[in-house]
């Protein structure tokens, strides 16, 4: 998949606390964690790099992401519902329970991330690559997908309901226990071993 890369040239080192009052988050690289609880509201992270930032005590409220790289960050339980996620990379990140419900994702990469319980329900997805990641029990309920690729992804008990997956290749990923409804199964690509699991979902018994 040819993803458009984030435009993050000439980023200046900055501290998160120094940006709170002005609500300016553009062309910065953040590499220092904050000790106290802070709230970031009604802003766009634009052309920024977050390097090993723990967002556990950082509340994100109404934050869009454009041209952003998160490397080694903890974004668990953060909410990006109904937000714009455009040309964003999540690399080596922990994102347990992070929510993208109703979000618009375009040219987004998840690389080697712990993304259990990730929620993409009702999201609009165009060019999303997820590779070498744990997506156990993630939810794709009524997601609108134009182009998505899974490369060596653990999809155990992930659910795809009322989601068009025609042409999506699952052959390199673990779909044991993955939940598909009939609509979502149509046109997916699997290997011979995976096809046995799919047949089982349909209630068909194979005679030895």
Order of helices and strands: EEEEEEEEEEEHH
Q: And the CATH topology of the domain at 12-155?
A: Pectate Lyase C-like
Q: What gross morphology would you assign? A: elongated
From the alpha-carbon coordinates, what is the Rg to the nearest angstrom? 18 Å
CATH arch. level architecture of the domain at 12-155: 3 Solenoid
Highest-level CATH class of the domain at 12-155: Mainly Beta
> CATH homologous superfamily of the domain at 12-155?
E3 ubiquitin-protein ligase SopA
Q: Which range best describes the helical content: under 10%, 10-25%, 25-40%, 40-55%, 55-70% or over 70%?
A: under 10%
Structural class: mainly beta
Number of helices: 2
- Residue windows where pLDDT falls under 50 for at least 5 positions: none
Oligomerization state: single chain
Separation of the first and last Cα atoms? 39 Å
In the sheet with the most strands, the strands line up as 1-2-3-4-5-6-7-9
Rounded mean pLDDT is 91
**Structure summary, number of beta strands:** 11
* Strand residues, percent: 35-45%
Described by strand count, sense and barrel closure, the largest sheet is: 8 strands, parallel
Task: Describe what you observe in this structure.
This protein has 208 residues and is mainly β. It has a domain at 12-155: Pectate Lyase C-like, CATH 2.160.20.80. It is 7% helix and 36% strand. The chain has two helices and eleven strands. Strands 1-2-3-4-5-6-7-9 form an eight-stranded parallel sheet, with no helix packed on it. The chain has a three-stranded parallel sheet with strand order 8-10-11. The radius of gyration is 18 Å and the shape is elongated. The N and C termini lie far apart (39 Å). The model has no long low-confidence stretch (mean pLDDT 91).
């Amino acid at each position: 998949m040819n993803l458009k890369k984030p435009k993050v040239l000439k980023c200046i080192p900055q501290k998160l606390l120094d940006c709170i009052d002005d609500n300016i988050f553009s062309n910065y690289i953040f590499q220092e964690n904050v000790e106290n609880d802070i709230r970031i509201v009604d802003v766009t992270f634009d052309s920024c790099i977050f390097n090993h930032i723990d967002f556990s005590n950082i509340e994100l409220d109404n934050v869009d992401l454009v041209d952003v790289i998160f490397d080694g960050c903890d974004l668990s339980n953060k909410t990006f519902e109904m937000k714009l996620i455009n040309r964003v990379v999540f690399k080596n990140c922990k994102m347990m329970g992070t929510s993208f419900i109703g979000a618009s994702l375009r040219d987004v990469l998840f690389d080697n991330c712990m993304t259990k319980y990730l929620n993409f329900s009702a999201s609009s997805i165009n060019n999303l690559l997820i590779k070498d990641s744990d997506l156990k029990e993630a939810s794709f309920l009524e997601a609108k997908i134009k182009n998505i690729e899974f490369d060596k992804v653990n999809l155990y008990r992930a659910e795809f309901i009322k989601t068009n997956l025609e042409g999506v290749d699952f052959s390199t990923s673990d779909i044991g226990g993955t939940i598909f409804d009939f609509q979502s199964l149509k046109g997916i690509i699997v290997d011979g071993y995976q096809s046995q699991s799919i047949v089982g979902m349909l209630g068909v018994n194979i005679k030895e």
